[in-house]
Write a structure and sequence with these properties.
single chain, about 400 residues, 12 helices
Length: about 400
């Protein structure tokens, strides 16, 4: 980087954005000065987009939102003394910038059609719901969203009780699976030093069978952790904000039952960031390359998002792993559409399930290997403090690994 570029960077960071030399920690003063401004501007943008004739105001406001969000991402420490939380800075602020940009470019006011029972329309409450609503359930901007069939009780108290039990159960399973993954190699990717999941000392078949098992367990850990977060969000949303349980349909639809790559990603995996990824890359590329561009663009945006997550968690991690993996996922989905046009048959049934699980695990191995080499898998888990359970899980997995190596 040239001297002029370095000077410009310093002027931008120190004089324009007022970014401190080191990130500031969480306290009331720093919260009010660094975090509250972008959050309030985010809510302000939500208010404007549900009101008519506000396009000009939204266009004027967005650069301010972007500056405030950038300042918060670069200067505020969201980790709260937990290194695993370092990525929250960038994620939250990127999310604020992209959502408000989407709202800025909206040609018509966004409309809400599901409200709490006996409540009257309210701009402020609609804006609050919009700001906290990722999938668009109950809004007109969620066209094309596939929502899993509801199987939980919809009475408010029972719905929240179900969410509490689900969060606890998935939290326990998540911790057990996380401990199991680390036990495959405690001194490499099972520690914060990191290491690859592909053991070069093993024969070809055993090496990739082992990596596939590790990938499947770690992906299941991710599934359980997202279920925990989603269920914990339900509790205040339904009890305090009085949102309708219908706005909180299941986050997943049994992804292990998917019979095509399209079925896995468009229906069964969570759709929390679907709109954001399509807005950033899917819709722009669809104007040039049609439905193929929309698919590849959506996966490409997801890959970039996950790459940012990986790098902010550990600056030593190699870039592009996530982009490669998600791009391959998109290529698999496009190939299924080409197969439909060529043969007139959809990818489905038992053959479709085998293809889907094989392709998803193969692509996911690239992602998991990136996390593993960056030392992310070696973080602590909830059952680390429960000695007997942790010892049982580790002993069982290590014994299985020994058997697998001799297989």
């Amino acid at each position: 980087m040239s001297f002029a570029a370095l000077c410009l960077r310093e002027v931008l960071l120190r004089d324009v954005l007022r970014v401190p030399p080191t990130p500031v920690s969480m306290n009331l003063a720093n919260f009010l000065s660094h975090l509250l401004p972008p959050v309030l501007s985010y809510f302000g943008a939500a208010v404007l987009v549900v009101m008519p004739r506000t396009k000009c105001l939204r266009v004027v406001l967005w650069p301010l939102v972007a500056l405030l969000a950038s300042r918060a991402a670069l200067s505020f420490d969201f980790s709260i003394a937990n290194p695993e939380g370092q990525s929250r800075n960038m994620h939250l602020m990127i999310f604020i910038m992209t959502r408000t940009l989407d709202w800025t470019l909206a040609t018509e006011p966004l409309q809400r059609y599901i409200r709490p029972e006996n409540s009257a329309p309210s701009v402020s409450m609609d804006a609050l719901d919009l700001a906290l609503n990722f999938r668009g359930c109950g809004w007109n901007w969620s066209k094309g969203l596939r929502v899993p069939q509801e199987t939980r009780p919809l009475a408010r108290t029972r719905f929240v009780g179900y969410a509490i039990l689900s969060a606890g159960l998935h939290g326990l399973i998540c911790s057990i699976l996380h401990t199991a993954v680390k036990a495959f190699s405690p001194n490499t990717f099972g520690s914060i030093q990191g290491g690859t999941i592909f053991d070069e000392t093993l024969p070809f078949f055993a090496r990739y069978l082992r990596s596939a098992i590790i990938t499947t367990i770690f992906t299941s850990t991710t599934y359980c952790s997202l279920q925990v977060i989603y269920n914990l969000c339900i509790i205040p949303a339904v009890l305090i904000l009085r949102q309708d349980p219908a706005q909180w349909p299941p986050a997943f639809d049994a992804p292990w039952m998917a019979t095509s790559v399209n079925d896995f990603w468009a229906r069964r995996w969570h759709q929390l960031f679907r709109r954001t990824f399509l807005f950033l890359a899917g819709d722009p590329l669809s104007r040039m390359f049609g439905s193929t561009g929309r698919i590849i663009g959506g996966f490409l945006a997801s890959g970039v998002f996950h790459d940012i997550m990986a790098v902010t968690l550990n600056g030593q991690m190699e870039p592009w792993n996530m982009i490669q993996a998600f791009t391959l996922m998109g290529i698999g989905a496009v190939c299924e559409r080409m197969f439909l046009r060529w043969s007139g048959r959809r990818v489905e049934g038992l053959t479709g399930w085998v293809w889907t699980m094989t392709w998803v695990i193969l692509c996911s191995s690239l992602m998991v290997d990136g996390w593993a080499r960056g030392g992310v898998i070696g973080s602590s888990s909830m059952i680390d403090r429960v000695g007997p359970l942790r010892a049982f899980v580790e002993h069982s997995v290590m014994a299985f690994d020994v058997w697998l190596r001799a297989f």
